[in-house]
Amino acid sequence: MLTGIHILLTFMCNFACDQCFVFSGPNAKGTFTLSQLHIVLDEATKLGTIEWVFFEGGEPFLFYPTMIEGIRIARSKALSGHKKSILDFCSPKVPIFYEDIASAGSVNRLA
Ligand code: SF4
Questions:
Q1: Does residue 94 carry a pLDDT above 70?
Q2: CA 48 remoteness from chain centre
Q3: What are phi and psi of 2, to 5 degrees?
Q4: pLDDT attached to residue 31
Q5: Confidence class for position 108, pLDDT limits 50, 70, 90
Q6: Is residue 80 scored above 90 in pLDDT?
Q7: Residue nearest to ligand 1 atom 6, measured at CA
Q8: How far is it, in rounded angstroms, from Cα 26 to Cα 44?
Q9: Could you tell me which residue, 45 or 92, shows the higher pLDDT?
Q10: 87 C-alpha to center of ligand 1: Å?
Q11: From its phi and psi, is residue 39 left (phi > 0), alpha (psi between -120 and 50) or beta?
Q12: What is the 3-state secondary structure (H, E, C) of the chain?
């Protein structure tokens, strides 16, 4: 049973690490729009089994308003809106606005 989805919000990243398995970098193309996020989260809701939504990249904080709105959308659909950035185990490159994220969704785990 599928209980979680991982949304690679963007492939763009301010780093370009050799070991990056999604080949992110400053010139990487491909970033979700809000309308695309609505479609994906609508489909996830139809499954009826999704409990976790992870927002990853690339660096999702480069598209902070979209990431926050994605968490809000996930929350409004009774999906858990969680933010998880691959960069959390790379390095803290950008400020993390936990308060905004917490108010946007049910965030009981920030990885
Ligand atoms: S910081 Fe992370 S996401 Fe960015 S290029 Fe390096 S491994 Fe990839």
A1: no
A2: 20
A3: -80, 120
A4: 97
A5: very low
A6: no
A7: 17
A8: 29
A9: 45
A10: 6
A11: alpha
A12: CCCEEEEECECECCCCCCCCCCCCECCCCCECCHHHHHHHHHHHHHHCCCCEEEEECCCHHHHHHHHHHHHHHHHHCCCCEEECCHHHHCCCCCCCCHHHHHHHCCCCCCC
Which amino acid is located at 88 in the chain? D
CB 44 within 8 A of CB 3: no
Which residue is closest in CA terms to ligand 1's atom 7? 20
Report how far ligand 1's centroid is from the alpha carbon of 85 (Å).
10
Six-digit token pair at 79?
């999906």
pLDDT at 109: 44
Query: What pLDDT score does 95 carry?
Result: 45
Dist. CA 62 → ligand 1 center (Å): 12
Residue that the structure tokens 């729009």 belong to: 33
Residue 10: pLDDT over 80: yes
